[in-house]
Every structure is written in C-alpha cells, then in structure tokens.
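Replying to the earlier thread about multi-chain prediction with a worked example.

Input:
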Amino acid sequence: MAVTEFDGRKRVIIEDASPQVDGGRFPAKRVAGDAVAVEADIFADGHDLISAVVLHRHESETKWSEVRMRPLVNDRWRGEITVETIGFHHFTIEAWIDHYLTWRRDLAKRTADDLPVQLTIGAAMIRDAAQRANARDRKKLEAYLDTDDLEDLRSDALAALMHRNAERKFVTRYCELAIRVDRPKAAFSTWYELFPRSYGTFADVEAELPRIAKMGFDVLYLPPIHPIGVTFRKGKNNSVVAEPDDAGSPWAIGNNEGGHKSTHASLGTIEQFEHLVASARSHKIEIALDVAFQASPDHPYVRDHPEWFLHRPDGTVQYAENPPKKYQDIYPFHFESDAWKQLWDELRSVFAFWIERGVRIFRVDNPHTKPLPFWEWCIGALEREWPDLIFLAEAFTRPKIMDRLAKGGFTQSYTYFAWRNTAWELREYFEQITKPPVSDFFRPNAWPNTPDILTEYLQYGGHAAFTIRLVLAATLSANYGIYGPAYERFWHIAREPGSEEYLDSEKYEVHEWPPTDEDLSDFIALVNRVRRENRALQQNATLQFHESDNENILCYSKSAGDNVILAIVNVDPKNAHAAWLELDLDALQVDAVRPFQVHDLLSGARHSWHGARNYVQLNPAVVPAHIFRIRRRVRTERDFEYFL
Amino acid sequence: MAVTEFDGRKRVIIEDASPQVDGGRFPAKRVAGDAVAVEADIFADGHDLISAVVLHRHESETKWSEVRMRPLVNDRWRGEITVETIGFHHFTIEAWIDHYLTWRRDLAKRTADDLPVQLTIGAAMIRDAAQRANARDRKKLEAYLDTDDLEDLRSDALAALMHRNAERKFVTRYCELAIRVDRPKAAFSTWYELFPRSYGTFADVEAELPRIAKMGFDVLYLPPIHPIGVTFRKGKNNSVVAEPDDAGSPWAIGNNEGGHKSTHASLGTIEQFEHLVASARSHKIEIALDVAFQASPDHPYVRDHPEWFLHRPDGTVQYAENPPKKYQDIYPFHFESDAWKQLWDELRSVFAFWIERGVRIFRVDNPHTKPLPFWEWCIGALEREWPDLIFLAEAFTRPKIMDRLAKGGFTQSYTYFAWRNTAWELREYFEQITKPPVSDFFRPNAWPNTPDILTEYLQYGGHAAFTIRLVLAATLSANYGIYGPAYERFWHIAREPGSEEYLDSEKYEVHEWPPTDEDLSDFIALVNRVRRENRALQQNATLQFHESDNENILCYSKSAGDNVILAIVNVDPKNAHAAWLELDLDALQVDAVRPFQVHDLLSGARHSWHGARNYVQLNPAVVPAHIFRIRRRVRTERDFEYFL
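Result:
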C-alpha cells in the first residue's frame, strides 16, 4: 500500500457487510418483495460521528438508490432495502466522518466560553451546505445562519437538511455485493411428484390435476418423460434382466426415437405436453421437469457425439459404476472431454428446449455427479435469459457439495430431512439451515419420501408416521414435497429388509392407482391450506425452537408480521406423550402478563394460555400435532375484547 | 463467467482455506518456528479421488515449496508447513482429480471379468508417468508394467512414485494468502514498565536492570523520554495548574528543546539512551519506547508545521477535548490535513529515528485516535525495512477497533484483561481471544495494572489480589506486563473513590522508590521462571478450560509437546475456596486408568491424582493458586517407574 495510491484521509472502515456469501464470490438469495437488512461493521479512529448509506440498484438500473444506515450496538450498522424485481440486485455501502453530526452532538456539552467559536464553526458548515443545496434547501439552511438558539441548531430538521446536502468528504466505499432475487415461489412452494405413465398419457395426467389442486399443491414434478433405452434395461424391482414387457427406468434416457428433447411416444407428443403445462397453469399448478444428464446406450448422443463419452482401451463406452456395482444401462457424460464446451452448450440447450415449451421449474437429477463449475455457468446463462427459473438440486451427498451447488445457482435443495427423525436432530438441523450464513444461499425443500427414499420411519411407523412427517416437512420448511400417491396411501413396504427402495417401485414398472376411500388427502389439503393462509409458514427466517421437557415433543414457531404460528409435534408415532413447554414469548409476540389464545388450525380447538410455561398432550393415534395460530387479546376503546 | 474464459475441466473446488484473515485482506500472524496447519474444504463432483498440496514460500524466495495435504473429515483437508524466517510467507493450495488414485482404490473391488481392461488402463497411466519421470523413477515405474499382481499395483511404493510424477491435469489453484512471521518474542514476552525520571537519569535506570532481570522480565518499557511542554502543563494529580517545580506529564511531548526525536535533558543524551539500550541487552532485556503521536503547544512541529494541526476560526489551534473536558496541554495531529502525506512520512520517521538507535519494540499510545489506514501503512513500511519490529497497541477501546488495529499490523494488543475479574468472565474472554479467527490476528498482552489503570480489584483486594492477578496474567497470556514498582509494592490507593487513577500518580510527579523488604518481587521472579522453563506457557493456542464446581475457582491448562501446565486459581482474594474439578484428561495428555502426578511449581508440592475428578482447596491468605506441571508415570523396560 503506497501512500500515492490512495487517500489516507478516508478514515472510516467498513467491514464484514451482510448479506454476503463467501466474501462476495456468490450472490445472496432473496425473493421479490423481501426486505433485506444490510449490515456492516462501520467505525473510525477517535470519537467523530459517522454517516453511512446503503447504495443499491437492480441490474437493469444504472442509478443507485440510497438508504441511510443506523448504528445498532458494538459498531454494527443496519439499513433496510426492499428488492422488488427479480434478477440481480447490486449493493454497496458508503460511509464518511460527519463533522456536522459531531459538532451537533458536542454542542449541548459546550461550556459558555467555548460557544462563540463553536457557533462560528457551525455557521461555516451550514453555509457550505447551503452552497451545495438546491434553492429550496438553501433558503431553509440560510435561515439557520441568523440564529444562535442551540435547540434550533440541534434540531432534527436541520440535521436532515445537513445530511441531504452533506459534502461527503473522504468517503469510504465497500466492494459491490450482489443479491439474486427470485420470484416468491422460490421460497414458498408445495410439490407433488407422480409418474405420468402410471396414469397413461399426458392427457390422463391432466385428469389428475383437480385432485392435486384440491390437495393444495402448486408444483407438479414429473420424472423424465423421454424415450427409454432398451440396452441393459432394468426389469421390475431393478432386476438386471428385463422382461420383454418391462417399461424400464425413465432415468435411462434415450433410444432411437430421441433423447432429452423428445417425449416418450406412449405419453404423447410435445404438443400434448404443452397442453398439460397450460392445463396445470389453469389449476395454479406449474409443471416441473426432471433433468437427468446421462444417456442410455441407445441415446442418439452416443452415436452422434462419441467424444462426449469416455471410451475404454477395449473400445467400449465407460458405463456408470460404483465397483463392484455396474450400471450398464447408463452412460455418464465425460466432462473432461476435449469437446467439453460443445457438451456444456448442448446440455444448456436441453433446458432451453423445455423452457421454450413453457417449463420454468426443473428438478435436476444427481447434480453432484457433474462438475460444479458447469452448474454455475449453465444456471447463470439460463437465468440471464429467463430470470424466473427455479432449479431444485437433487443431491443428498456430502454437506459441502450440497452447499456449493446452492451457492453456484440452485434455487432450492433437497435436504437430509428424510433421515432426521428425533426432535433434537430436527432442531439441530433446521437451526443450521435456516439461519445465516447457510440460509443466505441454501433454500431447503423437505421431502418425507421420494421414489428413491422410503425411510425406515415410514416403513415401521404406521399411518401416524405419515401424518407426523407431513406436518414436520410442511411447517419446518416453506418448500416441501411428497411423492404420491405412495405417500397419501401410506405405501410403506420396502423391497427387502434394510432397503429404502419401495417394493414394486414405480421407477421400474407401471402402477395403477384406482380410487380409494382411506387416504391422507384431506389432511394434506388441510395442512396446505394452513400454509397458504399463514404467511408465517411461507418463509424460514423466523423459525424459532422452544424448550420442551419431553424429548419426543418438538415445539417451534414462525412469524411474519403479526401472523404467528406455533407448531407442536409428537415425533414418536407409536406412543402418546405429554410435555411442559417453556415458550419464548417474544418470538410469539405475546407478553407475559396477559393471556393469549392458541387456535389449533388442525382441530379447530381454541385454548387460553398464559405465560411461558404450558402443558400439551399429543396422542399419535388421534392427531400427533398442533398447528396453533397465536391470537392476541386486543382491547378496543370501548373496552370490547377480541382476539386478532 | 463465459465458457471461453476458463477451463471447465477443472473440477476440483477449494474453499475456505485457513489461516485466513478477512478473506485474505490481512496476513495471519505466526512466529518463526511455528508449525502452521493449512486447511481447506476440497471436493469435486462424483466419486473420483483428489490430490492436494500446499505451496508456500518466504517473500525472499521465488520458488514454491510443496507439502502434500491429507483429508480429515467432511471434505476438510490439512497440510502442515513450518515457517522459519521472519517476514511474509505466502501460500496457496493446488488440487486436482487423481485418476490413478481412483483406479487404485477401485482395483481391489473389481470383478474378475473387469480386471483385464482395468490392468490395461492402469498400465497406460504408469507408462505416462514414466515418461514424465527422471531416469531413476522411470526405471522403477516401468518395473510395474510387467506385473499384474494387484498387491504390487496397489502398493504405497507405486502410489508415491505416481504422486511424484503425476500429470496434474486441470489443476485448481486457490488465491494466494499471506502469513506475517514475527520473531518469537512477539508471542512470548514479559514486560516491565517504569518511569525513568523516578530514578534520575538513563544511567540510574541502568542500575535498576539487575533487579528487573532478576524478576525475569525481558522487555523494559519506558513512557515518553522526550522534552515536556510547559504551556498548560498539568500539576500533581492532574491538576490544571502546575506549580513551578512540577515535572509535567511525559505524554505532553515537545518544547523548545525538541520533540519526538529528542530526549528530556534531565534524563540524558541520545548517546546515554543508546548506552542504556546496550546495557539492557546485556541483561537480556530489550528497551521498548512509548510512541505518542501528539504535541504539546510548545512542540517545534506547532511552529514549523502549522498545516499538521487544525486551526479554529479564531486562529487558535484545536486542542484535544472530550466536551466539556478540555486538554489544552495536548494538540492532536490533523489527519485530514491537505499535508497528510508529509505528516505520515514524518511520523514514520519518528519510529525510524529510534530504530536506528537500537530500539526494536514500541508501545504505541492511543493508536485508535489516529486513522487506521495510517497504521497499516506505517507499520507495513517499517517492517519491510526492519522485519524484527514489535508494536504493542495501547487501545482499550471498542472491540472492532482493537481488532482492526491488530489486523492492520500491531504485533500485540492490550486487552480488557484488567476488567475481567470473575472466573466466568475470564474464561469467556480468553476463549474468544485465544482461538481462531481472533487469534490469527490478535495477540493479547495482559496487564493487571498500568499507570492509567488501578482497578477496583487491586484497590480493595489486599496483597492477595496482586498475587492472583499476576498469576492470571502470566499464565493465561504468553505476553504480559506490569507497571512497577507500583505493582510489586502493592500500590493500591486511588486518587479518589470511583477513580482508577493512582493517588500521587507518577504520570504527573517524580517518585522515589527506596529499597523495601516486603514486596512481590520474589514471587514474580518465581512465576516468570516457571514461564521460561515451560514452553506450554509461551503460547496461547492450546489454552483449555476445565470444569470446576466452585465459581471462584478457575482451572485451565496449556500444553506444548509433552510439557503440560495446569493452573488453578482462586479469584476471590478474600476467602478460601474449595472445588471439585472435572478435568479434560485428553488436554492433559493423561489417561483415565493410570495415576498421574501434579507437581506444584509454586510450592514444590507433588500430589498423585487419578482420573478426571479431583479436589482442590485454595486459601488466598497462603497462596491463591496452583501452577501444576503434569508428570506422567513412565514404565521402563526394567520395570522402573519415574515421572516425566
């Protein structure tokens, strides 16, 4: 640092601004309409006062908007900006020594003999500001030149005028940081996964839409809809030899009828798929497509672009493997190929193909087996063109890799939720993923089951297990989903003991789902309605756990404005449990001395509670959870009380 | 990120390397001889194995040295480098997909039908490596081409050869980070502060050196030794009017005899000061000078460089103030002056002046009232020329500012130690400042008293308070100091109730310290000998607190190699206390099933302890602390036991 390179009179230091992901290497994530608290450590030598502002602009704007920051404690400052438009927002911070503010603070403490010179100093600052001001402000400022009334000179009105016309000398500016602003569905979405072929064609899937909409789902996610390979096709229950009539796995993509940009003939045409997309929209449901970047041996890519695959010395193409296991029906792409740029472009074009046919949400299969720099480039390139895209990363791999996928652009991420069953595991995990730094880049999407994951908990927990896991997913995480109808019909038989695979999995065969009387649909519809009607459940930032003296009872709240939800779940599907709770009343926005009402949105029951310590009993044979809305007693002018 | 700008085949990600201060904005601090654990998160897509190395070099070297990294858990990797030479060390990390290692791992799991093609693949990799290798390695590598013995092909010998001659394709390289390596005294030093004028001249201070050396101090810090201003000179006990014979405050620097580059005539000449520096060195003591960047109204700078001071509209120079308090005997420098560059250069030259006269350690007065960028520039410029300098920041201000001073170059920092009295305060504070991230840039120097700080604890705690605070400072912090003889003579009378100022403070008058019989010197000498003889106490990184069931008993350990010290202190100077301790036996390097000996280095007593739970009693009227050395029982071949 040579003296000549900078102005040593910039005395203000700005450090550790937030939100910030890896020192600004990645954008922080928010959704349109979010208020963003921009914070930083701001200080200088000595005792002079500081002024600081947040500068921010949407990528489409060239001019910065400005919001003033205020000091909190311990030299931390905060200014709040609102991000309204999807795309990238840029922000930075400027701060400077404010000699006027310092003079103003000290004025009240000056001794009489000091006042004359101080009034001269103040007048000079006001005169300087007046020269910088517009005509209106100038007139107002000059009015203060005639006074030696200390109250006037220390008034908020003058302070505002002086700030507006401050010289801002020796301003320290922080580096620029970015916020990726997604549409609100990125933060709050309710997913339903089904296998289209189990219903027949795209048109048959359309017939399911009213049922799915009635349950309250707003994303319908379809496993791959492309032609399926025949070479080494897997049979039912993943057997290595397929029977002639076996349907094959939808993830073994491609045959001589086409690949990633084609539809399976038995499902229908591209146009019929587009019709499904439009029908879904009329039910307020978006279609999410599965993108699995791998090829069956019969994929046209294998023939047309052998350079995108690794060839072994014996001339064969390297299939997927995890020695000694072989997946000869799947060829992974060779990302170290000399032709990597062409491969990247082609894969990007797969997304573009479906985007142009109306899809805006993608669930990406096994993204952690493709290079991480590829995703950052691919998602970045697509989002520049279509800023309303949503990408869900299907990765249940090592935490650092899951985090990096999220940092690199994935909008939402599958989580370890499926394997967090005890109350303390759930608490520890959700405290970690819903608070900064993780929550600045990672948005959980909680799935109690998937076609690959039938947990032991669901296998052995009976119907209550399905209710419990649904409530947990739907209230702990603003994004959640289920694989149905397996879920609402309590499918729980594993292929073999110790396996998390479904017996007779839809991954390898077509299922029929004739109508049934007893299922979880109505309960799911109720829970999803509660989610829609309570903004508290549409975000995770305010998640707060409360103490319970029974390790089987998990208690937590979320709030948005004055909407406060308190969920209490018995995580033991087999036994009734009771607990004394020790509630954090601040988080519930109730005070210690007045009763408040807890209104169970599942049962409709209302109870009057008082103070932090309250008792609950939950029997999984009846209903294993409360989802309470906190209603505060309000006293009107006429002394008429009601609950908000 | 355009595809053309980078190679998408670099699949390895390196994140969050350490040590790293503020994303590499500042160097991490270490001392010569330190082993530095370089860590990072290193991972890639898929299941291929990775190789990673740390590259490092001293600033004087152009060639990188290389150390291989090893994975720990959760994708964290570590490699250890040793920094031998003072100055700046640079390091970075390189990592790449290691196809040979992946092949080697999988080889053991291959099915028989797979082996032929795998052996061909392996042979090709070995042949490639041989072509890159020197003649010796080539011969060794080619020997493996003739074998299909899987054990040979998976041998460590071949793996080492392959690593040495790896192609290192598509290598990911992290950004470069820096480590500031100081001389060992930066991390372990024992300071004694005295006012030279209380002894007479520099020659009279020389007469004190044997006493100071006997007590075990290795830094003798002198308050400013410059001419003292007369205008507005402060009298005894900081009275605003001085009597004609009052000596004035050494911090009111400068009069017509000179300023920051002159000595006070009554202390002696520059040459006599240089003689003191040399004498001290013969006692293994270094002289530390106080640098206080401020001027009395009589300082030559005020006349010669009016542009370095702020002038008020009435033509007077702005004096130091904290309204309504005025410090008219002190003029601060005006760092927003147009002539700031000249001012910076002059201030830097003050250090250079004394460095050229043999001083290498500076205690900087109130650095937080001078711009933080100035210190970063000034210390950086000085250390480039004289890499063995040590700067102690005298700042007891807000934590963020103290941290920034340390980041910006100060070698050591005063702390809040003086005001941390209870066991839990001490534990919380030292846990924070002795662990990363803080310990990577902040080195505490703990002072139980200073001429400005006579704490309430010392005022009212009796002699035991002085013993307790000395043991705490000397064992919690590898750097510590006292202001004497006030400390060893138990000076404890404040100027007035509620004040932390000494009555009849040496800051404003000359004191005489005739010999005395009863003082703390012998105890100080003992504690300092224990520090010298036990490497555990010469660093803070291994500080570990142990549980105690009495809140007045603080228990902690430090270790260096097999040298383990366990300190137990009763922090209540008035009452005897007993406690059951729950020791962390791993930190003490003893096992749970064998007895170990605790050898009290203060009393000489030895006790045999066993397991984690042990009982202590400490009476402050006798001695309020144990400083135990842990001695482990060692059984020799001849079954002869002794304690290490």
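Residues 187 and 539 of chain B are 6 Å apart (CA to CA).

Feel free to reuse this layout for your own posts.
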